[in-house]
Amino acid sequence: MIGIAHDLRYALRSLRKSPGYTVLCVAALALGIGANGAIFALVEAMMLRPLPFPAPERLVVPYIEVVGGPESLGNPERMPWSYPKLEVLAREQKVFEGIAGFVADSANLTGRGEPERLQLEMVSPGYFDVLGVRALRGRAFVAADGKAGAPVVAVIGEGLWKRRFGADSSVLGRTLQINKIPVTVVGVAPAPFAGLGGDTELWVPVTALALLWYPEALTEVGNHYLEAVARLRPGITPERLAAEMDRLEGVVAEAYPQPDEVADGSVWGAAAIPLAEARRDPFVRRALVVLLAAVGAVLLIACANLASLAMVRAARRRREMAIRVAIGASGARLLRQSLVESLLLGLAGLGGGLLAAALLVRALTAMRPEAFGSWGVSSAELADLASAGLGAPVVLFCALVGLATALLFGVAPALAARTLGPASDLRFGGGALAGRRGFAAGPLGGARSLLVAAQVALALVTLTGAGLLLRSLWALQSVDLGFRPERVVTFRISPTQGDYTGDGATLAFHRALVDRLRGIPGVESAALGSCLPASGAMGCNSTVVLSVDGREVPRTSAPSIGWHLVSPDYFRTVGLRLHSGRLFDERDREGARRTVVLTETAARRLFPGRDAVGHRMQIGTMGLRGDVHAEVIGVVADARYRQLDAEPVPEAFLPEAQGSRPGTTVFLRTAGDPLAVVPAVRGAVRAIDPNLPIYRVRTLEEQLGFALSKARFGSLLLAAFALVALVLAALGVYGVLAQSVSARRREIGLRMALGAAAGEVERLVLRQGMAVAVAGALAGVALSLALAGALRSLLYDVAPRDPGTLVAVGALLLGVALLACLGPARRAARVDPALLLRQE
Question: Whole-model pTM above 0.90?
């Protein structure tokens, strides 16, 4: 213990005498540990942390597997169950302790305070038991709650209980109005549980579908809307589960054969995957893996940086080490001293790294894009992201990273000490004599050069990845949207079913709403539509074309087409350009001849080489008054209604007057700030229907920001870590070169005393530093080309081996390396040979 205490005091004195070296080491460690800790916190929260349920490894998601459909492109598609099919599955299965169905929806909460739109789940009575969630107050559902005709009961979330009811325990037994249907509160679910959707605040039995949707929802065999979750019995292996799902596939198919009229050549089966896997978006997984690789490169750069600095410092301390060896210090003693010093640096770097990681995690969770929810990523993943923090696993990971790094770079001086020759080192004072080899001169000089080159190579790889993602983001932001998003605000309304029934009631309500909204000061135009632009793969309705000009299209090759119900002013409000024909007007009223407006892509695919205007087509509209036979009256520009990173798909617009539904999206184009009219909008809606909340209020520009959020999140984050890598590489070049110049002051003084000019010395140091940087950059280019394929699935309109990006990144890196070399080179040129020789 006395020896360790002595080593600690000696290490502290030594580090205080070298403040530049100490600051560089601590900064490099803090950056490397902080970056790794922040990304590991995201990975731990979103990929490694067990689900917050008892025995989560036994939770699985059974689903219908569809292979070979027209839109599958050879990839299996996961399809939910219909209510009758899930009942057969639950009754006949032999491997689950319990199985439950659930479907997410939203509904209006009225009757107490302001009307509010709530996210809810309609679930089988065993839902909470399968997940192992116990009620905080009251009870969860029981089997009797799911019987047909039973009174509708509800479980509310703890957040809703506190927000809406002030955590009043008398809420149990209270009646709420959900879409004007009375439901009795029987329990409160504990926070942070928010359903498997991740944003649920209220649960009702699935049999409430008959009231909240329509009675046939519980009997329609072909209406697949119910997701399933099941808990495996103990000891059930994956092989046993797969065999059971194969058997159940046949049981369900025998009970409910697929009708011939809907056959499309696909093959339906049954399968199950772990719940944890089902919750994860592949894009998020790929992005996190890329980010983890990037911060791993940052850590490697930091390690190389520290090791090279330690080697240079060891070379400077050769005389000190030689004296210690001469008076009897062993190699083990020197190794212990070196490790104690590196561990002190590691502890300081760990403290800075944890602080940096905490700040980074806070920034990342604060900027979590709400858009993920509208772009195919579940709210559950958003909740996982929001829960990321510096918990015990992250702190332990950072500590291990810091310890391993400190041990690695602490061994370098001890290795240098093994080459000591006390007589020569004492005679020459520890100053390395170097010829034109420069960086490579002295003990372990070649290793230092390799370490610096490795830093530059890894920095170039990281910068190249960031550059490619930033170029991809720029390409996405430059996509022709087909509409004008500026000064447009949107919101949703969903009247309760039954409020507007009878001939023309919905249409009259919509017209009254649009007329009142047009009268708000600052509103230039108002319109209705069924789909937001840039709303993702599943954000809009899709159907198939059944016939063109009376010719039936086979179901196995029926083209898919998006369909929208819009009011006449929709195209002007959103900014869709008319190419040919006309847009909807008063002629396209209820009871008149059916009409349709197509996008350019739809017109080109359905009527190749012809003007689509005047031709007829038939599409299936999934219950909208039967299939639609309509005449094409106009063609508008393509618009990005789904992914921004995919070519526009065919879209069809139908007049809202010929098939209106109560629930719709409202679009307002304004003269100024679009959000400034929102208070007046709320008042206008309340004046028509005081029980009707508006929700999902956002501008179209915000919607586009949501659509770009994944690309922006990943690319900017990788760019930030690439910047850290660049800084670390520059620190490595600067630190090693500066330390090397300091160690070679005697040699430089002798050169200048023998006639070398200051400019010649400066150029010599610059050449030596840049030679290593160029070698590292060339290695980095080769490594970037080899690894480019890993980014292919994350890029849009940019080749993974884009030469422009490589040239730009290489120029940036070499420019920074040159700046890093200038300081030590100028310091070398200012050496006073007379003063140095007098000191010698």
Answer: no
